[in-house]
Amino acid sequence: MPTAGTSTPEPSADDLSARIRHAILEGEFAPNQRLIEADLSESFDASRAAVRMALLSLAAEGIVERLPNRGARVRAISVSEAIEIVEARIGLETLVARKAAASITSAQADNLRDLGHELEAAVSSGDLVGYARLNQELDARLRDIADHDTARELLERLSAQSARHQFRLAYEPGRAARSAPEHVAIIDAVVAKDADAAEIATRTHLDGIIELLGTRL
């Protein structure tokens, strides 16, 4: 708690952009939802000038779109564009998988195995909300293990753009039962330090997402 005579420092534009991007990724803002500067300023404890700069940055990333004389809103992504995004992710995520397999430590391997067990338990119990959260956690852990900042940044942007489609896919009938073994295969390959298998498992998983999205065209 701040002491008398002090105040909480205002978040930087980059930090504020990251926080708003994360909120969009988590589904807190819907496609086409207007992003009101005054509301964001209050929610994120930032000045309206800082919010405006953050929204300009997110617009440059394609996550937000500016409306003439009407502020900004979350950009809606079509199914066709969502497929293109996953196609772009294949190259980046297979790179991450290979890097992770090459550099994983024993402690990180144990953590990934535990996460795999949690994924399987979530599917067995029908906890789709928990399963979706664990999927995001797996992606984040693999990026941390790979320690490739450029791939991490690009993937975070792409994931935020297609967050709504990703959220809906998690609730497709039978999707979790199919994707859980795919995630476990990725984990097993990375833990085994088998870069080729990690790439194949990652590509197989993402190809399945493209196939499922294609049924919505």
UniProtKB/TrEMBL annotation:
Residues 10-77 form the HTH gntR-type domain. This is HTH gntR-type domain-containing protein. Gene3D superfamilies: GntR ligand-binding domain-like (1.20.120.530), Winged helix-like DNA-binding domain superfamily/Winged helix DNA-binding domain (1.10.10.10). Keywords: DNA-binding, Transcription, Transcription regulation. One of its GO terms (molecular function) is DNA binding. CDD domains: WHTH_GntR. PROSITE patterns: HTH_GNTR. The keyword Cytoplasm does not apply.
